[in-house]
Amino acid sequence: MHALKYRSALGAVEALAELWPSAPSSPQVWLPVPLYPTRLRHRGHNQSLLIAQALARRTAVPVWSNALLRLWDTPSQTQLTRDQRRRNLSDAFALAPEVAVRGLHVGLVDDVLTTGATLAELSALLRRHGAASVQAWVLARTPAPHD
Protein backbone atom coordinates (compact mmCIF):
# COMPACT_ATOMS: atom_id res chain seq x y z
CA MET A 1 0.00 0.00 0.00
CA HIS A 2 2.79 2.39 0.87
CA ALA A 3 4.48 1.79 -2.48
CA LEU A 4 1.19 2.37 -4.32
CA LYS A 5 0.43 5.56 -2.43
CA TYR A 6 3.85 7.19 -2.30
CA ARG A 7 6.05 5.54 -4.93
CA SER A 8 3.57 5.11 -7.81
CA ALA A 9 3.70 1.30 -7.77
CA LEU A 10 0.55 1.30 -9.88
CA GLY A 11 0.90 -2.36 -10.84
CA ALA A 12 -0.10 -3.28 -7.30
CA VAL A 13 -3.69 -2.09 -7.81
CA GLU A 14 -4.93 -5.11 -9.78
CA ALA A 15 -3.19 -7.57 -7.48
CA LEU A 16 -4.65 -5.89 -4.40
CA ALA A 17 -8.12 -5.73 -5.92
CA GLU A 18 -7.99 -9.48 -6.55
CA LEU A 19 -7.69 -10.02 -2.80
CA TRP A 20 -11.11 -8.47 -2.25
CA PRO A 21 -13.87 -10.98 -1.64
CA SER A 22 -17.05 -10.66 -3.63
CA ALA A 23 -19.61 -8.44 -1.93
CA PRO A 24 -23.02 -9.83 -1.03
CA SER A 25 -24.45 -6.75 -2.72
CA SER A 26 -22.62 -4.38 -5.01
CA PRO A 27 -23.24 -0.67 -4.87
CA GLN A 28 -24.73 1.17 -7.84
CA VAL A 29 -21.74 3.48 -8.15
CA TRP A 30 -18.14 3.65 -6.88
CA LEU A 31 -17.01 6.99 -5.42
CA PRO A 32 -13.28 7.29 -4.69
CA VAL A 33 -12.07 9.51 -1.85
CA PRO A 34 -10.82 12.67 -3.58
CA LEU A 35 -7.41 14.29 -3.26
CA TYR A 36 -6.91 18.03 -3.25
CA PRO A 37 -5.65 19.11 -6.73
CA THR A 38 -2.15 20.14 -5.56
CA ARG A 39 -1.68 16.80 -3.74
CA LEU A 40 -2.92 14.95 -6.82
CA ARG A 41 -0.43 16.81 -9.03
CA HIS A 42 2.40 16.11 -6.57
CA ARG A 43 1.56 12.39 -6.20
CA GLY A 44 0.65 11.92 -9.87
CA HIS A 45 -2.32 9.66 -9.14
CA ASN A 46 -5.23 9.16 -6.76
CA GLN A 47 -4.79 5.68 -5.30
CA SER A 48 -8.47 5.56 -4.26
CA LEU A 49 -9.51 6.24 -7.86
CA LEU A 50 -7.20 3.50 -9.15
CA ILE A 51 -8.69 1.05 -6.67
CA ALA A 52 -12.24 2.11 -7.62
CA GLN A 53 -11.41 1.58 -11.30
CA ALA A 54 -10.12 -1.93 -10.54
CA LEU A 55 -13.34 -2.66 -8.66
CA ALA A 56 -15.36 -1.33 -11.58
CA ARG A 57 -13.61 -3.75 -13.93
CA ARG A 58 -14.49 -6.65 -11.60
CA THR A 59 -18.10 -5.61 -10.94
CA ALA A 60 -19.27 -3.61 -13.99
CA VAL A 61 -20.35 -0.86 -11.56
CA PRO A 62 -19.43 2.64 -12.81
CA VAL A 63 -16.92 4.94 -11.12
CA TRP A 64 -17.88 8.58 -10.66
CA SER A 65 -14.37 9.98 -10.42
CA ASN A 66 -15.33 13.64 -10.01
CA ALA A 67 -18.44 13.32 -7.84
CA LEU A 68 -16.67 14.15 -4.58
CA LEU A 69 -14.60 17.28 -4.11
CA ARG A 70 -11.91 18.03 -1.54
CA LEU A 71 -12.40 21.70 -0.72
CA TRP A 72 -9.00 22.45 0.74
CA ASP A 73 -5.58 20.89 1.15
CA THR A 74 -5.89 19.45 4.63
CA PRO A 75 -2.66 18.53 6.43
CA SER A 76 -1.51 14.92 6.18
CA GLN A 77 -3.32 12.74 8.69
CA THR A 78 -0.53 10.22 9.26
CA GLN A 79 0.56 11.65 12.62
CA LEU A 80 -2.82 12.90 13.89
CA THR A 81 -4.97 11.45 16.66
CA ARG A 82 -8.59 10.42 16.10
CA ASP A 83 -9.93 13.80 17.31
CA GLN A 84 -7.38 15.74 15.28
CA ARG A 85 -8.31 13.77 12.17
CA ARG A 86 -12.00 14.46 12.69
CA ARG A 87 -11.36 18.22 13.12
CA ASN A 88 -8.94 18.22 10.18
CA LEU A 89 -11.65 16.87 7.86
CA SER A 90 -14.67 18.74 9.18
CA ASP A 91 -16.41 20.27 6.14
CA ALA A 92 -13.42 19.41 3.94
CA PHE A 93 -15.54 17.67 1.29
CA ALA A 94 -18.45 18.52 -0.99
CA LEU A 95 -20.56 16.82 -3.60
CA ALA A 96 -20.03 18.23 -7.09
CA PRO A 97 -23.02 20.46 -8.00
CA GLU A 98 -24.07 18.34 -10.99
CA VAL A 99 -24.03 15.06 -9.04
CA ALA A 100 -27.16 13.49 -7.55
CA VAL A 101 -26.87 10.52 -5.19
CA ARG A 102 -30.44 10.55 -3.86
CA GLY A 103 -31.70 6.97 -3.57
CA LEU A 104 -28.40 5.39 -4.69
CA HIS A 105 -26.43 2.67 -2.96
CA VAL A 106 -22.90 4.09 -2.97
CA GLY A 107 -19.56 2.31 -2.62
CA LEU A 108 -17.09 4.74 -1.06
CA VAL A 109 -13.52 3.65 -1.90
CA ASP A 110 -10.37 4.48 0.06
CA ASP A 111 -6.97 2.83 0.30
CA VAL A 112 -6.41 2.64 4.07
CA LEU A 113 -8.69 2.89 7.10
CA THR A 114 -7.08 4.13 10.29
CA THR A 115 -9.65 5.91 12.45
CA GLY A 116 -12.49 6.09 9.94
CA ALA A 117 -12.61 9.90 10.06
CA THR A 118 -12.43 10.34 6.27
CA LEU A 119 -15.06 7.73 5.55
CA ALA A 120 -17.33 9.03 8.33
CA GLU A 121 -17.17 12.59 6.99
CA LEU A 122 -17.87 11.50 3.42
CA SER A 123 -20.61 9.07 4.47
CA ALA A 124 -22.37 11.83 6.40
CA LEU A 125 -22.12 14.12 3.35
CA LEU A 126 -23.58 11.47 1.05
CA ARG A 127 -26.40 10.66 3.46
CA ARG A 128 -27.25 14.39 3.76
CA HIS A 129 -27.59 14.38 -0.03
CA GLY A 130 -29.98 11.43 0.08
CA ALA A 131 -27.83 8.36 -0.59
CA ALA A 132 -29.88 5.27 0.30
CA SER A 133 -26.78 3.56 1.72
CA VAL A 134 -23.03 4.03 1.84
CA GLN A 135 -20.66 1.06 1.91
CA ALA A 136 -17.02 1.69 2.84
CA TRP A 137 -14.53 -0.28 0.74
CA VAL A 138 -10.89 -0.13 1.85
CA LEU A 139 -7.90 -2.29 1.02
CA ALA A 140 -6.08 -2.06 4.34
CA ARG A 141 -6.66 -1.32 8.00
CA THR A 142 -3.97 0.19 10.19
CA PRO A 143 -3.84 0.31 13.95
CA ALA A 144 -5.60 3.46 15.17
CA PRO A 145 -3.32 6.19 16.53
CA HIS A 146 -3.32 6.68 20.25
CA ASP A 147 -5.79 9.30 21.43
Q: Can you tag this structure with a few keywords?
A:
147 residues, alpha/beta, Rossmann fold, three-stranded parallel β-sheet, two-stranded antiparallel sheet, 36% helix, globular, ComF/GntX_DNA_util-trans, ComF family protein, PRTase-like, PRTase_dom
Tell me the overall shape: globular
Could you say what the CATH topology is called? Answer: Rossmann fold
> Could you tell me the strand content as a percent range?
15-25%
Number of helices in the DSSP assignment:
6
Taking the sheet with the most strands, its summary is: 3 strands, parallel
Structural class: alpha/beta
Name the helicity range.
25-40%
The overall average pLDDT, rounded, is 82
Element-by-element helix/strand order = HHEHHEHEEHE
Q: In the residues, how many domains can be counted?
A: 1
Q: Class, according to the CATH hierarchy?
A: Alpha Beta
**Lateral arrangement of strands in the main beta sheet:** 1-4-5
Name the poorly predicted regions: none
Strand tally is: 5
Rg, rounded, reads 15 Å
Give structural notes:
- InterPro entries: ComF/GntX_DNA_util-trans (IPR051910), PRTase-like (IPR029057), PRTase_dom (IPR000836).
- Belongs to the ComF/GntX family.
- There is one protein chain.
- Helix 2 packs across helix 4 (47-59).
- The longest helix has 13 residues, at 47-59.
- The protein is 36% helix and 19% strand.
- A three-stranded parallel β-sheet has the order 1-4-5, with helices on both faces. The chain has a two-stranded antiparallel sheet with strand order 2-3.
- Helix 6 (117-128) links the parallel strand 4 and strand 5 (133-141).
- By secondary structure, it is an alpha/beta fold.
- It has helices at 2-7, 12-18, 37-43, 47-59, 82-89, 117-128, and strands at 29-32, 68-70, 93-95, 105-113, 133-141.
- The protein has one domain (2-18, 26-141): 3-Layer(aba) Sandwich (Rossmann fold), CATH 3.40.50.
